[in-house]
Task: inverse folding
């Protein structure tokens, strides 16, 4: 047991928690004024709901003893046996510290999905969907990659959540966008962000909190944490600049929204690779992520789905690129518990990363579609046209964001 490591992980858990309110502001500023509180509420209520689901059932399904490579057993149900002693395999910090750090990942991941169905989802349906999604989609994914499941056995590398967090939420976001359909007036009227300074503030909080996300995944205050911290920052900086340049060339002017979207894209892309690559490859991963995710945002116009706040374009394409890039640039010189990638003499790692990408997208998309049908049958999932036109703030919560 190490006091410095314990303090470091607890601080990082607090940083990751701070990311979800940051996401609330990031998303909240991008919607219309009549939906700002409904959008913020999605992220904030998940802090409460997901934490409780995680404590009772999510943690044990994710990190309980492996059952067939697919799910964890119920040994830690309701945090039974999760105390101040060390967890098996993580001897340097209390089991509770590991659990609460992972809890914050389970909080922000379903919150990411909310950007896809912003401005049109029924609150009761949203709550039921979130609970079921954490249990039946997030927990299995978490177990597969980090809990000793089949992807871990295959040798897939995911340092801080490229598959577990970003691709899983993006695949589910795509399913939600397709199932719920387009917002009323989509394609016929402009949907203009009502408060971009709010979005910029949210992005700044995300950038700040992401250091807990990635550096904290070292689970120790050591050189690997310093490496992950540095690669995270440099990739984000590169992606922000990369997005800005591509947008400048494509649209004629750089935008504030584009710059901060690029920063988030870089944070997403480096997440799976942060603890496996050196700094220069991280910068390259970020630069390319800026352009890739800018193109990803344009896909919704090409294919005609309404992903309100570009979850698929940023988290989906960014997470996919990051997972594949890990298979290119990973090196055991950074992390001996990882593996070498293609450019370090191991082409097999890229194939493993590709398989993990396909498995994540397929499982999360299909399971989410099933959950949406179930929730729709039980509570209904989309608000009425009348309520949508009023705005979610009034129709779902009887309040307004601004008194002007």
Result:
């Amino acid at each position: 047991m190490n006091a410095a490591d314990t303090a470091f992980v607890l601080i990082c858990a607090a940083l990751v928690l701070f990311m979800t309110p940051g996401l609330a502001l990031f998303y909240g500023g991008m919607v219309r004024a009549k939906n700002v509180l409904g959008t913020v509420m999605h992220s904030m209520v998940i802090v409460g709901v997901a934490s409780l689901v995680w404590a009772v059932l999510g943690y044990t399904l994710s990190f309980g003893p492996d059952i067939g490579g697919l799910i964890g057993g119920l040994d830690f149900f309701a945090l039974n046996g999760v105390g101040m002693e060390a967890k098996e395999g993580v001897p340097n910090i209390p089991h509770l510290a590991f659990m609460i750090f992972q809890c914050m990942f389970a909080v922000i991941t379903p919150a990411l999905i909310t950007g896809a169905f912003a401005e049109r989802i029924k609150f009761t349906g949203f709550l039921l969907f979130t609970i079921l999604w954490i249990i039946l989609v997030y927990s299995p994914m978490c177990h597969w990659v980090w809990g000793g499941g089949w992807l871990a056995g295959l040798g897939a590398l995911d340092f801080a959540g490229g598959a577990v967090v970003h691709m899983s939420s993006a695949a589910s976001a795509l399913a939600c966008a397709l199932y719920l359909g387009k917002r009323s007036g989509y394609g016929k009227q402009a949907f203009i962000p009502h408060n971009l300074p709010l979005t910029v503030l949210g992005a700044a909080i995300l950038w700040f909190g992401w250091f807990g996300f990635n550096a904290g995944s070292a689970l120790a205050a050591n050189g690997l944490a310093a490496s992950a911290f540095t690669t995270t920052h440099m990739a984000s900086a590169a992606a922000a600049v990369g997005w800005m340049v591509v947008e400048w060339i494509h649209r004629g002017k750089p935008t504030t929204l584009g710059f901060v979207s690029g920063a988030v894209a870089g944070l997403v892309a480096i997440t799976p690779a942060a603890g496996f690559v050196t700094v220069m490859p991280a910068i390259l991963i970020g630069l390319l992520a800026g352009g890739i995710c800018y193109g990803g945002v344009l896909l919704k116009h090409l294919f005609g789905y309404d992903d309100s706040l570009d979850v698929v374009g940023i988290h989906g394409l960014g997470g996919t690129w990051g997972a594949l890039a890990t298979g290119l640039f990973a090196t055991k010189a950074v992390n001996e518990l990882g593996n070498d990638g293609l450019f370090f003499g191991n082409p097999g790692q890229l194939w493993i990363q590709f398989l993990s990408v396909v498995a994540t997208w397929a499982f999360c998309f299909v399971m989410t579609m099933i959950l949406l049908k179930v929730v729709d049958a039980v509570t209904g999932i989309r608000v009425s046209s009348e309520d949508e036109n009023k705005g979610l703030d009034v129709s779902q919560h009887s309040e307004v964001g601004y008194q002007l």
Observations:
- The mean pLDDT is 97.
- The CA atoms of residues 59 and 76 lie 7 Å apart.
